[in-house]
Amino acid sequence: MAISKPSSSFPVIHPVSTPGGHPFVGETCWKPNTDVYLTDGRLVIKVELAGIRREDLELTFENNRLTISGHRADNCRSPHAKCRFLVMEINYGAFQSVIELPAAYDLSRAQAAYQNGFLRIEVPESAGGAQKMPVRGRSDE
């Protein structure tokens, strides 16, 4: 049995709603189950998204921040459906996860695949690794 424990190395931020202008404003968001792990020189992000169409997913990144968002339709609770739930554990509606990655990984070279309800994103290590920053000034000071 695996033990699930949050890691402070890879903060996963799950906002409930997003500020101004985003389609999820005022709508409660749910967070998909997410695994983040290292293997063979790359970081892998695996997100459980059963029942979501690929075209309903959106992946964006800026610097070392990856945003995964989308929507899972709920056809049972439409005005025309005659459902009376006894148990309801599946999340529907908008979702969004923001994952901040360490600087050692290059999101611009990431590859994503969606299969059998799982989104898998592989992020390679940065090609240059750590870079030195020159210090300007006179050498006699």
What does this structure look like?
The chain is mostly beta strands and 141 residues long. The protein has a domain at 15-73 and 94-124: Immunoglobulin-like (Sandwich), CATH 2.60.40. 0% of the residues lie in helices and 35% in strands. A hairpin with a 2-residue loop joins strand 2 (34-39) and strand 3 (42-48).
List the helices and strands and how they pair.
Layout: E1 12-13, E2 34-39, E3 42-48, E4 57-62, E5 65-72, E6 93-100, E7 111-115, E8 118-124
Antiparallel strand pairs: 1-6, 2-3, 3-8, 4-5, 5-6, 7-8
What would the keywords be for this entry?
disordered N terminus, 8 strands, four-stranded antiparallel β-sheet, mainly beta, 0% helix, 141 residues, Immunoglobulin-like, 35% strand
Give the structure's gist in a few sentences.
The chain has 141 residues and is mainly beta. Helix content is 0%, strand content 35%. It has a domain of 90 residues: Immunoglobulin-like.
Output the number of helix runs. Answer: 0
C-alpha Rg (nearest Å) = 20 Å
User: Which fold name fills CATH's third level, the topology of the domain at 15-73 and 94-124?
Assistant: Immunoglobulin-like
Order of helices and strands: EEEEEEEE
CATH domain class of the domain at 15-73 and 94-124: Mainly Beta
- Helical content (DSSP H or I, runs of 4+): under 10%
Average of pLDDT:
78
Distance, first to last CA: 60 Å
Strand portion, in percent? 25-35%
What's the architecture of the domain at 15-73 and 94-124 in CATH terms?
Sandwich
Q: How are the strands ordered across the major sheet?
A: 1-6-5-4
Shape: elongated
Q: What's the β-strand tally?
A: 8
* Class derived from helix and strand content: mainly beta
